[in-house]
Amino acid sequence: MTTPPPLPPLPQQQQQPQEQQPQQQLQPQQSGASLPPPTTTPLTVPELPADLVSKPAHVLEDFLTRPKAIHGLIHILSPEIQAKHAEQLQVTAAITQTRAPALEDRLARELPPLREAAAQALASAKSRVAEWASVETDMYKALQRFSMPALQARMDMAVAEAEQICDGLGSSFLEAPHGSAASGATASLQADDAEVAAFVKQYRRERKTYYMRKEIQERWKEERVGRAF
């Protein structure tokens, strides 16, 4: 009897060798030596000042918002910048030392005249102060008659004077003889009328002055002075 030919493999059996090939290809790569880690150079961070580190967080946040402060901190922490500043300081010190003798000579030459001028100006100022003291005294004496108490006293005197004038004018009119015995009755009456009219006119004028001054005096006492006569 003849044996039949073998059957073809199933589809799953055909895919297994194909799937195993990539795994077999990847195994040598995975089993190989691992790559070395990248080399990194450590950063050297300078130490911050102790005064700055001890500050609270809100102060440091405010510090970081100031470009000038950060720029100054960089200048403090950078050795290169410090060396540059030290070099500049040495150059400046050398220039100062070379200029110092010339400045000392100039100071010795120009300072004494300036001191003498300052002393003269001080003496003149002191003399003017003394002169002003005497002038100020004379000024206050001249203004004394225009002060409020002096003006009040003058107003009181003016009111009293106006009242005395009115009283004296009335008394003199009443005591003076009017007309004469030799004259007639008509002439005596005419003379009396003229004298009375003149007296009334003068008395009214003086009395008006008195009342005006009296009103000003009252306003002055009440501190509501409009004008002074």
UniProtKB/TrEMBL annotation:
Q: Where is the VPS37 C-terminal domain?
A: 129-229
Q: Where in the cell is it found?
A: Endosome
Which SUPFAM superfamilies has this protein been placed in?
Answer: Endosomal sorting complex assembly domain
Keywords of this entry: Endosome, Protein transport, Transport
What Pfam families is this protein classified in? Mod_r (PF07200)
Q: Kindly list the GO CC terms recorded for this protein.
A: ESCRT I complex
Q: Where is this region: Disordered?
A: 1-47
Gene3D superfamilies recorded for this chain? Helix hairpin bin (1.10.287.660)
Sequence ranges of Pro residues compositional bias = 1-11
Choose any GO biological process term that the UniProt entry carries and state it.
ubiquitin-dependent protein catabolic process via the multivesicular body sorting pathway
In this chain, composition skew of type Low complexity spans 12-30
Family membership noted in the UniProt record:
Belongs to the VPS37 family.
Task: Report the protein name in the record.
Answer: VPS37 C-terminal domain-containing protein
Q: Which organism is this entry from?
A: Geotrichum candidum
Q: What is the lineage of its organism?
A: Eukaryota, Fungi, Dikarya, Ascomycota, Saccharomycotina
